[in-house]
């Protein structure tokens, strides 16, 4: 029943044997198990808490969550590419695979750190819904520290910040 196995054995030039998955889907699924569900749950909780978080902040947080999901998908594709390369010749391509996994694990650590910062931003927005200055400072810190992850939403953050400043200036001029 070896043909039912998800793995195959490859014998190297020195006689060593390595086991590799036949199908990259068995080695690395398209997403990290539980990650997508966790992001969706955070988004749903955010939607339910909208009464405590202003609409602009909610939109920006959803943008961060979307960027995290995109980055997670990109990481999984990198895992899969590295494994397919390794799978073709597990002896010759072992060094490449190990280097790739090291880089991917570093990026995954950044992903987790960004996720923690976003959870902190959500908590801040819930506790201090009227503190838009504090919110935008925290938001800008997240965007700046994870720029490679957040590139797609940097523009929307800058636009939102410009709108907020313009509105504040208009209100100040109206009061005078």
Short summary of the structure?
The chain has 176 residues and is mainly alpha-helical. It has one domain (24-167).
Rg is 22 Å
What value does the average pLDDT take?
Answer: 76
Can you count the beta strands? 2
In DSSP terms (H or I, runs of 4 or more residues), the helix count works out at: 6
Give the percentage of residues in beta strands.
5-15%
Give the neighbour order of strands across the main sheet.
1-2
Helical content class = over 70%
Regions with little confidence, pLDDT below 50 for 5+ residues:
none
Along the chain, the helix and strand elements come as EEHHHHHH
Largest sheet: 2 strands, antiparallel
Instruction: Label the overall shape.
Output: rod-shaped
- Helix/strand structural class: mainly alpha
Give an overview in words.
- Helices cover 73% and strands 6% of the residues.
- Helix 4 runs antiparallel to helix 5.
- It is rod-shaped.
- The protein is mainly α.
- It has one domain (24-167).
Question: Which descriptors apply to this entry?
Answer:
two-stranded antiparallel ribbon, 2 strands, rod-shaped, mainly alpha, 73% helix, 176 residues
Write the layout of secondary structure elements.
Elements: E1 7-11, E2 17-21, H1 24-27, H2 35-48, H3 55-88, H4 94-127, H5 132-145, H6 147-175
Antiparallel strand pairs: 1-2
């Amino acid at each position: 029943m070896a043909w039912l196995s998800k793995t195959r054995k490859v014998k190297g030039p020195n006689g060593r044997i390595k086991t590799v998955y036949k199908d990259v889907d068995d080695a690395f699924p398209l997403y990290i198990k539980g990650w997508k569900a966790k992001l969706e749950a955070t988004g749903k909780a955010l939607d339910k808490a909208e009464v405590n978080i202003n609409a602009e902040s909610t939109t920006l947080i959803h943008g961060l969550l979307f960027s995290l999901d995109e980055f997670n998908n990109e990481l999984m594709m990198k895992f899969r590419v590295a494994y397919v390369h390794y799978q073709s010749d597990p002896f010759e391509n072992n060094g490449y695979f190990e280097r790739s996994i090291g880089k991917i694990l570093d990026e995954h650590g950044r992903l987790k750190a960004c996720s923690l910062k976003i959870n902190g931003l959500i908590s801040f927005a819930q506790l201090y819904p009227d503190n838009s200055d504090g919110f935008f400072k925290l938001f800008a810190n997240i965007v700046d520290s994870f720029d490679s992850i957040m590139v797609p939403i940097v523009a929307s953050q800058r636009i939102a910040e410009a709108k907020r400043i313009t509105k504040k200036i208009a209100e100040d001029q109206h009061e005078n």
